[in-house]
Amino acid sequence: MRQKNALMPTLRTVSEAEMISHQLMLRAGYIRQLAAGIYTYLPLGYRVLNKVSNIVREEMDRIGAQELLLPALHPSELWQETGRWDAYGPELFKVKDRHDREFAAGPTHEEVITNLLRGEINSYKKLPMSLYQIQTKFRDEKRPRSGLLRGREFLMKDAYSFHADRESLDKTYEDMYQAYQNIFTRLGLDFRAVEADAGAIGGKGTHEFMVLSEAGEDTIAMCASCDYAANIEMATVVSETQAEERVAGPAIEKVATPGKRSIEEVASFLQVGPERLVKSLLFVVDGEPVLVLVRGDHEVNDVKVKNLLEGTVCELADEETVRRVAGVPSGFVGPVGLKEQVKVLADQAVMQLGSMIVGANEVDAHLMHVHVDRDFTVDLVGDLRNIQEGDVCPRCGGTIHFKRGIEVGHVFKLGTRYSEAMNARFLDANGKEQPFIMGCYGIGISRVVASVIEQHHDDNGIVWPVAVAPFTVHLIAVNMKNEEQSRVAESLYAELKQAGIEVLFDDRLERAGVKFKDADLLGIPVRITVGAKAGEGLAEIKLRRSGESKEVAVADLLNELPAWIKRADQ
């Protein structure tokens, strides 16, 4: 491609972008924003997007998955069959046609693919079957301010597998897991596969693939001694402390705590450590209020609460609900003598306390010397808190530390969640109807592009890995008005194209400084510069990542180039 007439407008600065990937893609002319979370991919950006897509296709095809293309508009009836029309939440774009029929702009395709297979596959003899697509998805994100890392319209690879038995699902899950390992390795990413929650997709057994980056919104709990890694939502907490002896101590004592609502305020006022206090937080799980107790120095993990109750939607109760159930505002709620009877859940660390301090269900008051069982009862006990740095690894006993991560892939074992709801069945070997057992496997293609940049950039711009770079070679003629330089550069451009090498030719009538600055910004792995020594038959070859450079005879350049391309990622 010739740069002179290409649509690749570069900018020196941008003001509206926070993330490095967002800034650099705008500055380098890879994308332009149309509206919040909605982007146009300019030619360079689209080439990168296709490079990522093709790597994904190759690995999906390698494990026998078949590519198709499903509709982006989904009739509401399909989503109502699974209960997700209302449960999915405000991220679901909903529209009506001229006949007042409701549709959703697809954020994911479980319902659509299940509807397809229930009409086409009726025998176990056609199973297992894996299908995938690469398609634009739509989600009305609340805060789409991170460029391609969180868009309202984005490109995604979503795959779905259908099985007659669990063993078959396990095998495909392993194949997909390995395919994802291959994909993200080929993309040049530093990533981890972590244990995760299925969220709105549903199902049991799931891993997220996280790119390690400070730009990530997710916190990953990692072990310093083994390969254990889990999203903080799912990281298992191992209790190291011994349960305190519950002796017949003092009776409950109500103490005034005027204006003291937070754990820190109450602990300071009563001159005790926060671990002696218990947070009593009211959640609403599938429409029902539940009280969750955790130690004062811990944080409630709402995903663990949802999973313990086998719920679908778990949210912190609003102030109106708190006042209705407890009769007081948040900060003074406790498990003793609630106004309404609600299910009480306690974290395992709470059950180890001999006595505790809790809210009194009375404004400006707390209760001291409270004992579990003696003063209140607990319905369910479990691991309900977030893991903390320094906690014990649940796998090897090592020490947990935190990293930030960007979720770029997710693999799920859906089981029969969708097939049961949609009556999608097949005949087994005995002629008996059975629901399909399903798996689901997603990769955020456009998010991957941004994630690569978050890990591969420097102060001058993007530093693309060869596998996803829009071009492999950036050919620069320093002065196109110089006949010798122009002739040599044009000849090299023709030879590189003839050799099948993807080359961007900077044939602009610009100053050398502008060309080199733009080249660093664009981040193409190998740069060939035709300059003042063109008349001597010499050109410079330079690697974007390492800065290594060498003068090479133009006649030898094509022979030497493969070795330089191979070193470009090192």
From TrEMBL:
Q: According to its record, what is known about the domains?
A: Consists of three domains: the N-terminal catalytic domain, the editing domain and the C-terminal anticodon-binding domain.
Which species is this record about? Laceyella tengchongensis
Which GO molecular function annotations are given, in alphabetical order? aminoacyl-tRNA deacylase activity; ATP binding; catalytic activity, acting on a protein; proline-tRNA ligase activity; transferase activity
State the name under which the record lists this protein: Proline--tRNA ligase
Q: Which reaction does it catalyse?
A: tRNA(Pro) + L-proline + ATP = L-prolyl-tRNA(Pro) + AMP + diphosphate
Keywords, A to Z?
Answer: Aminoacyl-tRNA synthetase, ATP-binding, Cytoplasm, Ligase, Nucleotide-binding, Protein biosynthesis
Q: Which GO terms describe its cellular component?
A: cytosol
Q: How does it assemble?
A: Homodimer.
NAD found in the keyword field: no
Which Gene3D superfamilies does the entry mention?
Anticodon-binding domain (3.40.50.800), Bira Bifunctional Protein, Domain 2 (3.30.930.10), YbaK/aminoacyl-tRNA synthetase-associated domain (3.90.960.10)
Q: What is its EC number?
A: 6.1.1.15
| Top class in the EC scheme | ligase
Annotated gene: proS
Q: Which residues form the Aminoacyl-transfer RNA synthetases class-II family profile domain?
A: 37-465
Where does the UniProt annotation locate this protein?
Cytoplasm
